[in-house]
Amino acid sequence: MLDELHRSGQDMVTSGVPTGPPWIRRLEAHLRELRCAATEVDEILRREIPAEYFDLPLMPQASSRPGLLHGAPSLASVYLTADRGVVLTGEDLSIGPPETDWGFLIGELGEIALFESFPIAHHCRALSTIIDTHTAGLDRRSIMAFAQHRSVLHVLDYADTFVATADDLTGELFTLLRSIQWDGILP
User: Which of 18, 45, 52, 79 is the most buried if burial means most Cβ atoms within 10 Å?
Assistant: First the structure.
C-alpha cells in the first residue's frame, strides 16, 4: 500500500506539495521550545535527550528518490478490504523519501511492542518483520532514524498536551524515551 503511494508520487515532486512530513516540522518546533524553556518538566526532558540531538538535521539524506508520502502512516490509517489493503491519506500528505513513512510506521509498531500490556503488542512485533520485505532497497539507517524521531515526537507531543508538572511524567513516558536508540540517530 505504501509502496504504491510512494511510486505514484514520484512525478509530483515539483508540484508544490510540501517537502517533508508535517510531523518532522512539529518535532523541530518542540525541540526549539524545549531548548529554551525553563520549567521543571522541560529540564527533566532535556536531561533524557542527548544535547547533540537538538542540533541534528531531522531529515537525514536518504538514498531513495523522493516521492509522495503519506506523512504519518499508522495502524489507524490502514484498512483491509476483501481485495487488498488501503492506506488513507490526508493533511499530512507531503513529498520526501519513502524511508520517512516506513520509519514512522516502524516507530509506532515498536512503541506498541515495547509495552507488553498492549493487547496487540505481539502482532506489532510480527508486522515489523513483515515490513522488512517491503523496504528492500531503501536506506535502513534512515528508516530507523525516522522511527526514533517518531518516538521522540510522541513523548514531546504527550508532554506538551498532558504534562503540567513533574508529577505528571509517567513511567511509560520514561520507558519510551529510554528505549530510543540514540546511536542510530546521532552522528
Answer: 45
Gap between the terminal Cα atoms of the chain: 32
The pTM of the full predicted model, rounded to 2 decimals, is 0.82
Q: What is the pLDDT of residues 2-24, one digit of tens each?
A: 566 555 555 555 555 557 788 99
User: What is the grid cell recorded at 39?
Assistant: 520549567
Q: How far apart are CA 25 and CA 154, in angstroms?
A: 13
Give DSSP secondary structure letters for 54-98: GGS-SSPPPSSPPEEE-SS--GGGEEE-SS-EEE---TT-EEE-H
Write b or e for each residue in 110-137: b if 16 or more Cβ atoms lie within 10 A of its Cβ, otherwise e.
bbbbbeeeeeeeeebeebbeeeeeebee
Beta bridge partners of 68: 95
